[in-house]
Structure formats: structure tokens, C-alpha cells
Amino acid sequence: MSQKHPVVVITGSSGAGTTSVSHAMGQIFRREHITPVMVEGDSFHRYDRVDMAAQIAAAEDEGNHKFCHFSPEANLMAELQQLFVDYGQTGTGRIRRYLHDVDEAEKCGQEAGTFTEWADIPEGTDLLFYEGLHGAIVTDDVNIAQYADLKIGVVPIINLEWIQKLHRDRTARGYSDEAVVHTILRRMPDYVSYICPQFSQTDINFQRVPTVDTSNPFIARYIPSADESFLVIRFRDPNGIDFPYLLSMLHDSFMSRKNTIVVPGGKMDLAMQLIFTPLLQRLMERRRHIVV
């Protein structure tokens, strides 16, 4: 952890909705004049798209039907940990980008599904902001969680997560239902072993719970809307959280435990703004005292 060069993490499974949280963070960064270096977890995958497909096929030929992007061995975990260490100590480090689609790739003169070259983080950033699968992972080989100053988990209940993934992969990536279901099944062992345990490391968890029937996510035609959901927000350490203020600002919210507030789903963005803004201000204030 670092007061001078803080590291902020958004972690969650594929299809969990981490991008929505990142957008809320982006609004705060602009409003508070915070300059982040943005790091996508995909950029620390070990293999590009073609090589990953080959690795999965080879693993299945050997009887390993669970190798996937959730697996630590499919990612550069030591390099990600070193990035957090280096940035926390010096405000520097080496990063790259994963080019998801043709539009991104064409701008770099590359193929979609490949990585850009490694490059140094530019000078003058205020914090490192990571969004991805493994921002709070702890294994026998790495303890990435200990190097983050603020860790946020995004964890919709599992059926909703599957619905969101099915819809995203069908519409944005053109995958068949069968291909997406196969991916979900292959990832399940490592989801249990490596994704879920992170949410015991996170400082705040946001869990969206639909109020409509999601019993069979594989036939759902629509993603439940924000107004058809509640947002369960759990704080690992509730000390310093102004719950009366949050309850007054978030109409129809209530406390379900001493460290948990339940908010109507339609107020998710407002809740994130109210919660994240003072936390980031606190990080920046500590930083300013040290830099000056």
C-alpha cells in the first residue's frame, strides 16, 4: 500500500459489471481533477486470443477441462503484482494494452486479440486504477491484494452474472449460446477457487440482486434493469462510513447489517458517487501532504 502513489482496484468476474463501476470512477476522476493511469486486467493475460485458444485445446486434450482466463497460470500474476509494487513505491511501472476489437486494433496497426508492446507509465499520474479479474487475488505465489489501497468488488448474484455474460458475448462478441455456456462451465472451478475468495479481501462489495425471476438464466431474453434490482453494498470496515448521510441521500435505502446498506438499483450511480468521492478525496489528501 502507498500513500504517495495509491493503487485503486475494481475486481470482478467476466460479465459482472465492473465497467459500470469504472465509468462512475471516471466521472469522479474528472470532477476531482485526478489523473489516473488506467490498467485493464486483460492486458495481463499470458496469451493473446489465438494462443489462448490453442492453450485451451491443448489442455482439454490432456484432460484439463477447466483451463481459462480465471486460472492464475493463464495470467502474468507475478508481473501484475510487481506493477502494483513498483507504482506504489515510485509511481512508475510497465503496462500494455489488450486490443479487444477491430477498431482498437486498427488504430495500433495490429490484429484484434493481440497486445501492444510494453511501455513505461508516463510521469505525472496521481493513482493507478486497475479493472479486471485478479485485482485482489491471494495465492501461494502472489498476494496482490496487499498492495492495493482501495479494493472494490463487483459481484452480481450468479444467475444475473450469467445473464449479463450471455447477452454481452452474444451481442458484442458474436458468440453462440452454446459457446458461452461451455465457457461458463469450464470456468466454474477457478471461479470458486480464485474469483470468489477475492471478495473477502475487498474493502467494499457491490452486489446487484434482481427482483424478477432469473431462475433459468440461459433462457432469459432481457437483462433485469436497474429499477428491477436492489444493490447490496457491504463495507469490510464500516468505521468512518456516514451511514445516516447515505440513508438520507438514497431514498428507500435501508441497513440490513451494521456494515451493509441496501439501495434501490436505479440509484446505483448516485450511491457510487456518494461512497467513492470521499474515499478518493481522502487518498488524494494523504498524497498531497506527502508530495508537498
Detailed description of the structure:
- With 292 residues, this protein is α/β, with parallel strands linked by helices.
- 38% of the residues lie in helices and 17% in strands.
- It has helices spanning 18-31, 49-61, 77-90, 102-108, 158-171, 177-195, 243-249, 268-291, and strands spanning 7-12, 36-40, 94-95, 119-120, 127-132, 150-154, 204-210, 229-235, 254-257, 260-264.
- Helix 1 packs across helix 8 and helix 5 packs across helix 6 (177-195).
- The two termini are 19 Å apart.
- The model has no long low-confidence stretch (mean pLDDT 92).
Topology diagram in text:
Layout: E1 7-12, H1 18-31, E2 36-40, H2 49-61, H3 77-90, E3 94-95, H4 102-108, E4 119-120, E5 127-132, E6 150-154, H5 158-171, H6 177-195, E7 204-210, E8 229-235, H7 243-249, E9 254-257, E10 260-264, H8 268-291
Parallel strand pairs: 1-5, 1-6, 2-5, 6-7
Antiparallel strand pairs: 3-4, 7-8, 8-10, 9-10
Low-pLDDT segments, ≥5 res: none
Report the principal-axis shape: globular
Q: In what range is the share of β-strand residues? A: 15-25%
Lateral strand order in the biggest sheet:
2-5-1-6-7-8-10-9
Total number of beta strands: 10
Instruction: Give the averaged pLDDT, no decimals.
Output: 92
First-to-last CA distance: 19 Å
Main structural class: alpha/beta
Helix content: 25-40%
Helix-strand pattern:
EHEHHEHEEEHHEEHEEH
Largest sheet: 8 strands, mixed
How many helical stretches? 8
Please tell me how large the radius of gyration is.
19 Å
